[in-house]
Amino acid sequence: MHFDNRKDAGVRLAKALARYDNEDAIIYALPRGGVVLGAEVARQLELPLELVIPRKIGHPENPEYAVCAVTEEGDLVCNEEEASRLDPIWLKGAVKREQEETKRRRKAYVGRKRLPATGKLAVIVDDGIATGLTMRAAIRSLRKELPIEIVIAAPIAPHEVVEYLRHEADDVVVLDDSEPFLGAIGAYYTDFPQVTDAEVTKLLSSFS
């Protein structure tokens, strides 16, 4: 499956999530790219849009390859085999930097009271899933707020990651988990530019 851009992916994802349009639900998007899809899903299903902000910790020799992810609260989710080979001092520093970035983003993006997941159906949206670590961190973050259910939604993810995430979420909605996985989320999009802080802020403001 191929997508023109994030908006196109969001429209298609909204159709796959249509069964949730009458639920007491909140769309939680992962910034930055996931917010473009999350906004589209929230508009289509007439649901509120909120953020969940985990941060990937990339391997020191290959930053695009996630070895861990950290929640806003500082909880760490790791590929234990990969993490065991890392310098613990480096890892501690990387965790601190990325948690500080979650705080910066929360402050930069949100000029309103945050919508808690307590008692709600929480739908976590991103523009794609690779290792699943950031999504697992997002789940861990929202579980603390005691939602009724957690649903994961993304256009693309590796099949084995989807199967793993089914054990951590109540439902997983992925449009394409066919093999072989192309290795990079951007390979599934014709247009996949970096999303800016300003774009995220503008999208969020349209739901205020």
Automatic annotation (TrEMBL):
<protein>
    <submittedName>
        <fullName>Phosphoribosyl transferase</fullName>
    </submittedName>
</protein>
<dbReference type="Pfam" id="PF00156">
    <property type="entry name" value="Pribosyltran"/>
</dbReference>
<feature type="domain" description="Phosphoribosyltransferase">
    <location>
        <begin position="9"/>
        <end position="175"/>
    </location>
</feature>
<dbReference type="InterPro" id="IPR029057">
    <property type="entry name" value="PRTase-like"/>
</dbReference>
<keyword id="KW-0808">Transferase</keyword>
<dbReference type="InterPro" id="IPR000836">
    <property type="entry name" value="PRTase_dom"/>
</dbReference>
<dbReference type="GO" id="GO:0016740">
    <property type="term" value="F:transferase activity"/>
</dbReference>
